[in-house]
Amino acid sequence: MFERRKTKQVMLGKVPIGGGAPITVQTMAKTDTRDVAATVAQIRELERNGCDIVRLAVPDREAALALKKIKEETSIPLVADIHFDYRLAILALESGVDGLRINPGNIGGEEKVRSLTRAAKERNVPIRIGVNMGSLEKGILSRYGRTTAGLVESALSHVALLEREGYDNIVISVKATSVPVTIAAYRMLAERVAYPLHLGVTEAGGPWAGTIKSSIGIGTLLAEGIGDTIRVSLTASPLEEVRVGLQILKALGLRGGGIELISCPTCGRCQIDLGSVARAVEQRLPATDEELRVAIMGCAVNGPGEAREADVGIAGGKGCGVLFKKGKMIGKVPEDKLVGVLLEEIKKILEERKQK
Ligand code: SF4
Prior knowledge:
By secondary structure, the chain is of the alpha/beta class. It has two domains: 10-251, Dihydropteroate synthase-like (TIM Barrel, Alpha-Beta Barrel), CATH 3.20.20.20; 258-355, 2-Layer Sandwich (Sulfite Reductase Hemoprotein, domain 1). It has twelve helices and 15 strands. The strands form three sheets. Strands 8-7-6-5-4-3-10-9 form an eight-stranded parallel beta sheet. A five-stranded mixed beta sheet has the order 11-12-13-14-15, sandwiched between helices. A hairpin with a 2-residue loop joins strand 1 and strand 2. Helix 8 (207-223) runs parallel beside helix 9. It binds iron/sulfur cluster. Residues 264-267, 269-270, 297-299, 301-303 line the site of iron/sulfur cluster (SF4).
């Protein structure tokens, strides 16, 4: 539906970024990377729930060395997030990570950036140049201030540094906490380079405000064809970030599959606690790539129409819901059984499809 911006393609392990590849969803683990068991468990849970790429904080040598074990026990691409010490980037590469994220402005000088770039080049590992408004380097600040242009120029100067090493395995991000600034920066950057872009609104806040900010910032850019991989940044679990990221892609028709939940806003006609039913079902929906439509509707006005169109749905009545499956009404269910019955029917449909 949207014409995607043409970019170079880079490979993060087996996952392509840019060059027309499907847009990927990534997050950052919130465990201590040195705690291998907890980090592996979190990565596996994220993968089961549709996450494509996980980034890990590497604050010290112990964390860089732990990456080797984590890599051995997981299967999706892992990106090492490095600040301040280029030697950690080199150790992370030796541990087998699939990508690096650095802000070259805080690595401690050009020679150190060159050194880690050479190590990444030898292993054909991509580097994301991740520039944030909050950590622009002094030279850029004195010339441009904390502005959109400053953000973009900072990224471009780092790109030029890597290119001078004959390295072009690059992904770029230019994040700000302001949605308009983020949008403007990515638009500007997209005009200037053909590298794939990692989108995100940084430090977007808690799940409520952060979801809105991320959806508007990331969604606006994606609708313009800009962006190749996304990370929703929330003060919440990484699972929540992935759920929001996947939903942004689904809402724009950029990712198919999975369960689409339709529920009405309710009004004075609704005679069941529809909000509780919809929330409980949403929280317990199984992770699947199968396309399935579930409708949870409050009454007979729009309920039967939407529920009939869905694979499974209910139209609320007085203390109950009329259950529809594949276009047919199959019975009345008391309100307290609605969640269980809907989830059971979803499970049955998924099992039936597996057997086909
Ligand atoms: Fe109101 Fe019924 Fe429409 Fe829901 S489906 S918003 S309860 S009229």
